[in-house]
User: What shape does this take?
Amino acid sequence: MNDKYEVVITSDRTMMSNHHGKEFLGFVATGPPIAVPEKLWMWVAAPKLKVSDDGRPIEAPYGLRKVEAKLIDEGFNAAIIDPDYLDKYVDSMKVLMIGHHDYFAYGSPSIEWWIITGIEPLNRRSFLKFMDTPALRRARERGVKIIVGGPAAWQWLYELDKWRMWGVSTVIDGEAERVIAEVVEKAINGEDLPDYIYVGPLEAPSVSEIPVIKGASINGLIEIMRGCPRGCKFCSVTLRPLRHIPLDKILKEIKVNVAHGVKSAILHSEDVLLYGAKGIKPEPEQLIKLHKEVTNIVPDYIAWSHCSLATLKYSEEEYRLISKLMHEIVLQKQEYLGVEVGIETLSPRLAKIVMPAKSAPYPAEKWPEVVEDSFKIMHENKVIPAATLILGLPQETSDDVAKTAEYMDRLKPYRSIIVPMFFVPMGFLKNTYWFKKNMVTQEHIEVMKKCLFHSLYWARDIMNKFYLKEPHLAPVRLGLKIFMRYVEYRVRKIIPEIEANIRK
Amino acid sequence: MKHLIKDLKHVIVFFNEGLREIDLSKLITDVMRSIWSLGKLKGLYVWVVSDIGPVKYIEYLKEFLLNNIAYSVILHYAGSSQADFIKLVHKLKDLEPVVIVKKDLAFSVRDACINCEIIEV
Assistant: This one.
């Protein structure tokens, strides 16, 4: 394979970064650069990656790695290239593929910070700049076919002018394994391409069609499952069939990462604790085996991308599984384990409407208790959750939001970050409305205030005890502490103004 | 002719400005439902001939796209003129496409549609 790649895969810097080895810092790129210069903000959120001499990043986003692997397996001369090195390949490439989690900052939480501050988030700024770089302009002039995709592909439907202006040939929305090779082949042969491809759930690849990555993924993220059985209406992942990646394939990918010097592993699934399960009840043996084998080969730490609170509570109450996993395996090598979890609402009424199975095997009416119990279990076992709440869900009433605000007080004792997000129409609800600034009510502000002060309190604790302790990250740590203090000061100052505006 | 996704029903849409976006989206959704009820098919391959131009025409289909979750959909711009339409109909004739055409354009294309179901909008 020579370095004159025909197919180049890339993204902008907010995606092509390992965020100092701290996945959570990547979320800083969803915010607007306020109080500090954009360049500094960018350095905190998305520092440049280490690259090989020919511009291939040592680590790259997992989704791009999957596309690269599929194309290489199908015989294409394809590689992921760092955005700073694209120019080197403009003359050889015939196809440029771009992936992103949030191209235009229409996803959560970017859109929320944008609405609140009125300032464009960093990820959007970065992507717009990237699409206008000399390398991209030259690629367009040369007639390179530009194919875009990834979890935020849907956002292009709201940016038709940019789609046309930037000469994007095809947008692929959905799991691409079954279509990607043929699209690329057509592009290389100069054939006419479709504008838009939505890959429905029936075309989702089987486990055997999902390739093993060839190069390291950012912070060692690897998927252990795809899809989700819970059917929450606001989520797009749940539309996909549930698949469990076999353990040998998981270990192969971790070995690829370790071989490239990535010492951590983030186990990616919508619900890590359902790995190997047939329904919504966990399989303790499978989970213990997974964690033992993974921690055996990962030199540094592991994390979970997501887990559901109901599974977590059930796992502990039925099998003492969280205690076992944490104390007998995970905490042998690390001090804590990070995970993202979804609270979404603390109103049982609303939970029953928009996410009736999220609390299963417990009834939806018990959702707030499930949340509280699981937070307690996590706190006791040094699992640190970054939780989300959704404001503005369809059929939400002010009483639902008030209930959420009220119940949040019961989560105060538990170490966690809670991020409120404005509803974005996705999944079964993708044909509904967008939550806008004029829909923000006093109750929403109350929830946001509680989330902010809860998160600031616990963020300090987390940083003091667990996070960013490495000496080389001292400047990042200091910067974040100053920023948190600034946010607290600003928010206390502007809340009365916002509340007065709403009362008008 | 190779297709990206197997078992898609081919639909040709021929329209120009003046069509209500909601009407087109509703019609295509109906086509989708009717083919789905027959079983076997996984979605639609929608070919668009319109003087509205590439990509911009998607605005007219957005409602349809946002209402669809389960089925695969491919959108493909195939030109702007009557000649483009006729060329496309010939290319797809063995696939028995459904043709959706704006009423005031229907008279100009009816003769070309062999093996097609024509729906006027």
Q: What stands out?
A: The interface with chain B takes residues 157, 160, 163-164, 174, 178-179, 182-183, 192, 194-203, 239, 425, 427-428, 430-431 of chain A (CB under 8 Å). Residues 474-503 of chain A form the longest helix (30 residues). Chain A is about 40% helix and 15% strand. Residues 222 and 267 of chain A are 6 Å apart (CA to CA).
